[in-house]
Amino acid sequence: MTTIQPSKTKELVINWHLTEVCNYSCKYCFAKWGRPNELHRSGQEINTLLDKLADYFIKGTPTLKGELGYENVRLNFAGGEPMMLGSTFITALKLAKQKGFKTSTITNGHYLVNSKLALPENTLDMIGISFDSQSLDTRSKIGRKDRKGNSFGTEDLKQALASLTLSQRGIKTKINTVVNSLNLDEDFSELMMELKPYKWKILHVMPYGNNELLISKKQFDRFVYRHSGLGLPIFSESNSTMTESYLMIDPQGRFYQNSTNKVGYKFSESISLCGVENALNQIEFNSRTFASRYHKADIDVVVL
Ligand code: SF4
């Protein structure tokens, strides 16, 4: 049996779902928290939350640091679509950088090419861009378009990656593709060979809401197999390998995780009000269990 030793270069990842709001309406989307009281409405509250997180995880010596031996803490801004928040997203990004976090975001890409606000230079260490199809028709059927019918396409993806590479020194670019019944037979080989992302993450569509998109494990494996052997940086993730091995914060600034009986989520109070340690205790967070799960998982694969 192989024992996995804690790595000294390990990065702790905190996944902050900044907002539930999104300009797209993918049929497989599960970002549904209800919108009231999202924290991003107040710059002061964002600042307070980031201070609490930095004091605890970066400057402090929590048990988790001992368990994981992490050296960096990466704050991953997720959604909904985090870039929809415009200047607030940029403020949060800059603040996170100033406070010592590595930063990343997961985006549908739309605002990388359709925003008047440029990303400030060197504020993003990593980005994950969702891209499910080179065909507008397929993207539309999946729901990857806004109300006006705009959809982030192949040329947009190329343009976005080129400009990110220029403005964000050393950025790691990842492309996330959710394989479903509509893009199952599509060939991405040529595109991925041209784009050369740092990683291409291939995910099996999750059973959520819309069953017409579901595919079997065999079909998923066949998609992955078809794209293998070409030297592409593929990381595939089927439903059975998905685990929660990162800390999660909801749009209201609370930790949350699956409840032990796997029905719904368990939420802490606001981290800003009760402090990081109390909030972790409220979701019955166990740093040892977390650390053992963390070492088993490839965090890059799971989160971004
Ligand atoms: S782009 Fe992402 S957040 Fe938006 S609807 Fe699609 S899956 Fe959900």
TrEMBL record:
Domain Radical SAM core intervals:
8-233
Which PROSITE patterns does this UniProt record tie to the protein?
Answer: RADICAL_SAM
Entry's Gene Ontology molecular function annotations: 4 iron, 4 sulfur cluster binding; catalytic activity; metal ion binding
Q: Which cofactor does it need?
A: [4Fe-4S] cluster
In the UniProt record, does the keyword S-adenosyl-L-methionine occur? Answer: yes
Database matches in NCBIfam families: viperin_w_prok
Q: What is this protein called?
A: S-adenosylmethionine-dependent nucleotide dehydratase
Q: Which organism is it from?
A: Vibrio marinisediminis
